[in-house]
Design goal:
The chain contains 11 helices and 12 strands. The chain is α/β, with parallel strands linked by helices. Strands 3, 4, 5, 6, 7, 10, 11 and 12 form an 8-stranded mixed sheet that branches. A two-stranded antiparallel ribbon has the order 1-2. Strand 8, helix 8 and strand 9 form a beta-alpha-beta unit.
Length: 309
């Protein structure tokens, strides 16, 4: 099986038509059909269903399509790495950053530092939640992600950067009782109305689980993923939210917001770097990953000293 056949097959599936793919590739249609037939003979599987409307991949064709995309991407990365060997890293690197987190405030620093050290690397930044993370990382659509660690997911690796306690963040006008240490017991916090992310978000899952174990209801005022909207809702004293301290400091820098650690029991979350556990990274992605790790550690050390280690 050679990569040219795989490239032809992917282009056919993407186009939905052998005729359209042949025109795009500047290859005669009979020759393209022969390449598909050769693949089907080699794999002993029917790969495409042909009709007057075009072609559709079979189950076997879909499986080959997924693997072919990965193989072709790796071949292209190998070509680029060999071509740029000995020079500065270059190419496109995609990073997902979890909304509702301290990490989202690091975007300007990430871009600035990558631009300074690796001017030939083009960064692609996006926000993402855990529900679609694993597929995006495994399929190579993302090189890495900085997110709340959701637990073990097959095909991806999490490198925990910090373990943090969770805090209630509320308006200064909110009616909230605290203990002698200035912390808020979970039972007291549960009396508030909360704005939280959707149920597929790690923070929401941690809160739901803790309240359920204590036999406490969640008073959900709304599901909010937008930080500006969340800020306005809390400022209007329409409810509170729950975040780790680093996220609260980054997203709600106003000194008069109440930021109170939850106790009895204390709740904790992990912030982690996520990468694929089975595919080698490009030289550019590896360089950005090392840089990102150093940036996060330095940022946390500046804020929390040795407690961030």
């Amino acid at each position: 099986m050679d990569t040219r056949k795989l490239e032809y097959f992917v282009r056919i599936v993407d186009a939905g038509s052998i005729t359209k793919a042949a025109a795009a590739l500047h290859v005669a249609q009979p020759a393209l059909s022969q390449q598909v037939s050769a693949l089907e003979k080699e794999l002993k599987q029917r790969l495409l269903i042909r009709s007057k409307q075009g072609v559709e991949p079979t189950a076997a064709g879909n499986a080959l399509y997924r693997h072919a995309q990965t193989i072709l991407r790796l071949v292209e990365e190998a070509r680029q790495d060999v071509a740029t060997s000995g020079g500065a890293p270059s190419g496109r690197v995609s990073i997902a950053i979890a909304p509702y987190s301290m990490a989202s405030s690091l975007a300007p620093q990430i871009v600035r530092e990558v631009r300074r050290r690796y001017p030939d690397i083009m960064l692609h930044l996006t926000e993402i939640v855990g529900g679609v993370l694993s597929e995006a990382i495994k399929n190579g659509k993302l090189d890495m992600a900085l997110i709340y660690e959701p637990g073990e997911i097959r095909g991806v690796r999490f490198t925990t950067m910090i373990v943090e306690d969770l805090y209630v963040v509320a308006s200064p006008e909110s009616d909230l009782s605290v203990d002698a240490n200035g912390a808020v017991p979970l039972r007291e916090a549960a009396k508030l109305d909360f704005f939280l992310p959707e149920s597929n978000h790690t923070i929401r899952q941690l809160v739901d689980k803790a309240l359920s174990e204590q036999g406490l209801p969640l008073r959900l005022a709304g599901e909010v993923e937008s930080v500006p909207s969340l800020w306005r809702l809390l400022r209007a004293n329409l409810g509170a939210t729950i975040l780790p301290r680093s996220a609260a400091d980054a997203l709600f820098p106003d000194q008069d917001f109440k930021v109170l650690r939850i106790v009895d029991p204390a709740l904790q979350c992990k912030i982690a770097l996520c990468t694929a556990d089975h595919e080698p990274m490009s030289e550019a992605a590896s360089a950005v990953l090392i840089l990102l790790r150093d940036m996060i550690k330095n940022q946390l050390l500046r804020r929390y000293g040795n407690d961030a280690a």
